Amino acid sequence: MSDTTQTPTELEASIEIAAEPAAVWKLVSDLPRLAEWSPQVVRTLVRRPLTVGSRMLNVNHQGWKVWPTTAKVVALEPHRRVAFRITENRTVWSFELEPTTVAGVPGTRVVHRRETPQGVSALSNRLVDAVLGGQETFTADLRAGMRQTLARVKAEAER
């Protein structure tokens, strides 16, 4: 029996921000600030300086339910991309930045992704089904959370 199940879990949200990539990068690469942006993240701890291979401890929540995850930074391209892989379910979360023009001024297109290149662990899927409302509800919550995360980053960057 495989410990991986394939579910439609590739998620993506994007936003245009009226701020240069360097300013947006400063926000999205400051991983301890994820709790400010994401409605699911309570806290993120990561050793500094941030490098590929840096380990993270995350505390997440859904209502009264709280659970920890661990992660490892798997990509770090300044002003372009930061990504980390969650150990427990093998998902890869990332922020990708692309220079653009917003309302005639230099801006940044930010794409927030959750990818599953190795599938999602069967244990994680079972826990989502049993405790977090099922795949459809949990996925909808993640999508909404990704949009909220980007909106919060945009508000901070455009201040």
Describe it.
This protein is α+β, with helices and mostly antiparallel strands. The protein has a domain of about 100 residues: Alpha-D-Glucose-1,6-Bisphosphate, Chain A, domain 4 (2-Layer Sandwich), CATH 3.30.530. Helix content is about 30%, strand content about 40%. The protein is built from 4 helices and 9 strands; from the N terminus they run E-E-H-H-E-E-E-E-E-E-E-H-H. It has a 7-stranded antiparallel beta sheet with strand order 2-8-7-6-5-4-3. A hairpin with an 8-residue loop joins strand 3 and strand 4. Helix 1 packs across helix 4. The chain is globular. The N terminus is likely disordered.
How would you concisely characterize the structure shown here?
This protein has 159 residues and is α+β, with helices and mostly antiparallel strands. 28% of the residues lie in helices and 42% in strands. It has a domain at 9-30 and 76-157: START domain (Alpha-D-Glucose-1,6-Bisphosphate, Chain A, domain 4).
Write the layout of secondary structure elements.
Layout: E1 4-5, E2 11-17, H1 21-28, H2 34-37, E3 41-46, E4 55-62, E5 65-77, E6 81-86, E7 92-102, E8 105-115, E9 120-121, H3 122-131, H4 135-157
Antiparallel strand pairs: 1-9, 2-8, 3-4, 4-5, 5-6, 6-7, 7-8
